[in-house]
Amino acid sequence: MVQFYIQPDSDIPASNQLFNQIRFAIASRQFPPGHRLPSTRQLAMQTGLHRNTISKVYRQLEESGLVEAQAGSGIYVRALGHEGGSRLNSPILEQYPEASKVIQRSLDDLLSLGCTLNEARELFLAEIDWRLRCSARVLVTATLQDIGIGQIMAQELEKDLRIPIQLVPMEQLAETLDKMPSGTVITSRYFIGDAEEIAAPRSVRVIPVDIYDYAKEIEIIQGLTEGTYLGIISLSSGLLRAVEVIIHSLRGEEILVMTAQLGDAYKISAIVRSARMIFCDQASSEAVKEAIYENQDEIIRPPQLILCENYIGLESINLLKRELGLK
Q: Which of 79, 146, 152, 160 is disulfide-compatible with 33, CB 3.0–4.6 A?
């Protein structure tokens, strides 16, 4: 069971602490699609918050497109895109009234050849995926406010999928999709609501990716001695903000945390000179190592550098390979 921690004496409102922790649990798939969130009563007992505060957080999550309320049942993590399954919808049938008959005839022909339904499905999907792979473009999107997280996702996907990836700010996504005949939009669950709103009217599919759960890093943070100076360096400003809130929720003022975005050489130098431990993402690792080397004369004991795993979880990478016909 996921545990949530609220620091009552924090400058960060309790509702923001809980919102960020639940959103992280959803994005890292600790709360997978279809998972029922704890009741307001359960969370009130766990966190000490008033049930009205928890209800407000759940409404914010629903407005963000991450969860949905089912009357008389509870609050559930939304199943998105490929997760929820799909059928041919009525607008498509209205546009192509003969489509259903064509599909039925094709399926009957395959069955008459001795194919099973599962085999016919695989043949259809293989052909569709091949055509998508030949003609479609793969876009990664994130807001301009946190375009750094988009850069991280694009870099990781190009490396793991070995296909060209185009990074498009969310604010320019509609204009870009209007100029392309087909494609796939990939984004973090943090931005899924905005991406779906833009892509759906244009019949472009959106695939959400789950982030790495950072369980190893969280365990390390929970074991740090009081007064430890911890540095966090990332390409993404949004990731830094979220991490700072989560660490504060876990440890309060017990450890000293300083963050720096890749490109802020002054802050990075200050961190490597003072921090006992530094967490950084793949994109920032070389800059951090270079800063440690450049400041070695002023460093009594080099900080322990912990390079975090990919931002995107392995399961999401494998799922994308299948969705794009790459596996």
A: 79
- Please give the Cα distance from 179 to 255 (Å, whole number): 50
Pairing of strands 256-261, 277-280: unpaired
CATH architecture under which domain 14-79 falls: Orthogonal Bundle (1.10)
Nearest to 250 by CA among 202, 198, 215: 215
Matching residue, tokens 């969310």: 170
- Mean of the per-residue pLDDT values of the chain: 88
- Residue 303's pLDDT band, with cuts at 50, 70 and 90, is very high
Distance, in Å, from the CA atom of 105 to the CA atom of 99, rounded to the nearest integer, reads 10
Q: Is the pLDDT of residue 212 over 80?
A: yes
Shortest CA distance to 269 belongs to which of 308, 242, 239, 299?
299
What's the rounded Cα separation, in Å, for the pair 107 and 115?
Answer: 9
Please check the confidence at residue 287 and state whether its pLDDT lies above 90.
yes
What is the predicted pLDDT for the residue at 87? 46
Phi, psi dihedrals of residue 124, rounded to the nearest 5°: -60, -50
The radius of gyration of the chain from alpha carbons, rounded to an integer in Å, stands at 23
Percent pLDDT > 90 in the chain is 60
CA distances for 273 relative to 124, 218, 257, angstroms:
58, 23, 14
**pTM of structure:** 0.66
Domain topology for 136-211+314-327 = Rossmann fold (3.40.50)
CATH of domain 215-307: 3.40.50.2300
Predicted confidence (pLDDT) per residue in 124-166, tens digit: 887 776 555 534 589 999 999 999 999 999 999 999 988 889 9
